């Protein structure tokens, strides 16, 4: 028997219109009996790592799909995403000599907030796609009805993904001696791929040197990799919140790190209250309309005990706004004395519609927002602690630009996202090289 947590009845934004509350309740009851995906001790460990990032002694890299799908929850796709994050992390670690805390938008990122409850096409109005955890993407009546059994499928898909991630990261695949292997299938004649080979060569030589002097190489075999997703469905997250037997404290065992989105961070809403209850490290997205006072108040609610690593603020201002909107927020939070990790999401403030009708992002805007983020922190003497990006391990054409030269006209070639446009592998590595340069100047 595990202790029940009672939740106050607060307004929860962005909840899908579940048609059958009884069916939803029975799914929640089943979810509540299932084993945890992650353990409290792992969440605590991540919080300690994040505390290092808050002080500038580590850098956080969060990356993965905008919206995971059941279809793409297969070994090839997961491996490709993992590989991209590992390669980015090697680039950053090598350049800046900083440990990189690796966090995937993976094993649970199945929920999407929507600007409109419904979508209209050719006069037909259906429920918007809220992510595979809720309904299906095809535009037909049956696909779009929210189906709570999908929450169970989400749980099972997430356990399978996390199982594979754990196998890859603990079973030798992520061994640093594999730095070349990760690049093998990758276009070696791409600029980023070649640059990566050079770094990998340097690392090989450093490892050979360590072996020669008899240094212990065991620590190279395993990497810590954490799972994160947006805590959007209040039902799913509450059902997976458990009292840890060791500490008697509540943890959301659906993922190590949960974040609250820009659209659900109302101070008096159910999401912020939920986040304040759980002991996991948590994040909140901060957009350009956030007021410094509101953000500071939120920090007080979410981190009243001023625990380092507990709270990450993920700014997503847009390339044109970050330099104006971010400083007053950073100053206000900094002067409150509440420790936070400052992370830059250069994706969500830079979404635009291409002439082809595709939702896209310009690589240059992404880079410019990260640059602005570093500038703001440099000017204020605060710490730029990490990067949060939407990426895939595949050669998709969803974001425009980069040395690989995805043009607006090519967007239709391989546009596969279920939601927002993601950086492809080459764009991801290129961004990592650029951020590595910024980190060295930090
Ligand atoms: C997201 O991260 O996919 C997302 C919806 O972000 P935001 O809440 O910042 O808009
Ligand atoms: Co997104």
What does this 3D model show about the protein?
Helix content is 39%, strand content 14%. It has 442 residues and is an alpha/beta fold. An eight-stranded parallel barrel has the order 1-2-5-8-9-10-11-14, surrounded by six helices. It has a two-stranded antiparallel ribbon with strand order 3-4. A two-stranded antiparallel sheet has the order 6-7. Helix 1 (21-31) runs parallel beside helix 5 (149-170). Cobalt (II) ion (CO) is lined by residues 66, 348, 390, 419-420.
Query: What's the CATH H-level homologous superfamily?
Result: Aldolase class I
The CATH architecture can be named as Alpha-Beta Barrel
What is Rg? 21 Å
CATH class: Alpha Beta
Secondary structure class reads: alpha/beta
Largest sheet: 8 strands, parallel, barrel
Please work out how many helical segments DSSP would assign: 12
Quaternary state reads: single chain
Level of helix content? Answer: 25-40%
Strand residues, percent: 5-15%
The SSE order reads HHEHEEEHHHEHEEEHEHEHEEEHEH
The first-to-last residue Cα distance is 50 Å
CATH topology: the name is TIM Barrel
Overall pLDDT confidence: 94
Number of domains: 1
The strands making up the biggest β-sheet line up spatially as 1-2-5-8-9-10-11-14
Low-confidence blocks of residues: none
Bound molecules: phosphoenolpyruvate, cobalt (II) ion
Please provide the count of β strands: 14
Shape: globular
